[in-house]
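In this section we walk through a basic example: taking a raw amino acid sequence and producing a predicted 3D structure, encoded as discrete structure tokens. The instruction is simple. Fold the sequence below.
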Amino acid sequence: MSTQSDTVVRKGLSPRKRAQRSRLIQYAVLVAVALFALFSADWGQIGSVFFKPEFIKSTFQDGVLQALVKTLEYTAGAFVIGLAGGTVLALMRLSSVGPYRWLATAYIEFFRGLPAIVVFIAFSLLPLAFEGMTIPWDPYGVVWLALGIVAAAYMAEVIRAGIQAVPKGQIEAARSLGMPPGLALRKIVLPQAFRIVLPPLTNDLILLVKDSSLVFMIGVAADGYELTGFGRDLANTYSNLTPIVVCGFCYLIITLPLGILVRRLEARAEKSR
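The resulting token sequence is shown next.
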């Protein structure tokens, strides 16, 4: 009898009520975890280690805004190099010439498989391997090349997908009108491809902002510090983690608006379909 009554009760719950009950259980678990964290944490210790007011003030006075500008400069240059290189690599991947495809594939697979920090270390050792070698606009040139080379490998696959998403009928129509292939590529294919891949390219830009934190690997001078290097140096000076927390919030100032932009671009793309 009890088994039959349980079966009736289970059958009596609609899918909507089951979903509501599941959500209520999840909310209750989240509230319990939040309350446990709230009452078990040592807020005095957290404040003195991560949010000490005098160190927050000192971090701004010592030049965190200049480090923020450096981060933007490093990111912008690397993005331009990555976008240009990624476009060339994407076209090589789609080329009918075999060696172009092989070279592009080897480059993409190699640099997508390497951690970015390895590339930074390799660039920092280039003057030792090639005596007298210098990269222009140091440290910008080194940072832009190191980040841009890695970014190009990722952007190439994004751009290739965008090019392949352009309807082939438009290319055939352009050629039937006598438009040369190169002109059709510049005037028809690439503008539409970049419009399609704009959201994922913005995601790549966000990743570049965070990867710029690897600049400390090449040993730049204090006036070339980006946010992470600046925060790490001040944290060592003060023996406190507050400067790193301040720099972390500065990264959010950059990445959160970009994330909102990505969502809006994706929403606009969905509406246009």
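Looking at the output, two observations stand out. DSSP finds twelve helices and no strands in the chain. Residues 55-272 form a domain with the MetI-like fold fold (CATH 1.10.3720.10). In the next section we compare this with other chains.
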